[in-house]
Fold this sequence. Notes:
alpha/beta
Amino acid sequence: MSAPLDPGRRSELVATLATVRGRLTDACAGVNRDPHTITLVAVTKGFPVSDIASVASLGITDIGENRDQEARAKIAELNASTWPMPELRWHFVGRLQTNKCRSVARYAHVVHSVDRVEVAAALAAGATRVQRHLDVFAQVSLDDDPTRGGVVAAELLRLAEHIAGQQSLRLLGVMAVAPLDADPAPAFERLATIAAQLRVEYPEAGAISAGMSADLETAVRYGATHVRVGSALLGRRTPTFG
Length: 242
């Protein structure tokens, strides 16, 4: 039987979630957007399943993980727990290698980090194997740093065509991470332009996954529909998982 949730920790999350939601509301008000059109993904890398259960109890059911092994372990632990849990929607937000695609395709509902044809093909094969369909974002590089992942803008349409051609995948739109130690506004403005160009060819691919704890307001200003928030929600406590 699972241990009871820590009421003190849940109170912390009530407060941080209120702050994040307030930031989103204010950001949306500044550009005349409806905050209900933005999906808040709680990135729980390194934090225990009790935190996932707590944020889910507060209405956040989109859960992001960066590492396949950790995600699988958490899902197994949650499935074995006795906590009352709403249905969760799992987002894989970390850089993805082809040898992990079959595993990720078994549990992920959304993959934010498809940046190569090989990754798209491996995900599609994995999803087909278990008779599932995955929503995916094409990750775009905004700083040309190969260690951070992302397809260069000139190759995006080729990648999008491959994703759209897979029966087990649905292209949602584009994802990007702002460059390190730089004003995110020019990068997210560029991403918005790239997203608009993609919609000309793929009108249904209108989503933009952009913005994290430090820059979510800027991402909202430039059209983000999904924000991936970790530390602003879960805090900077020492992670306790893994």
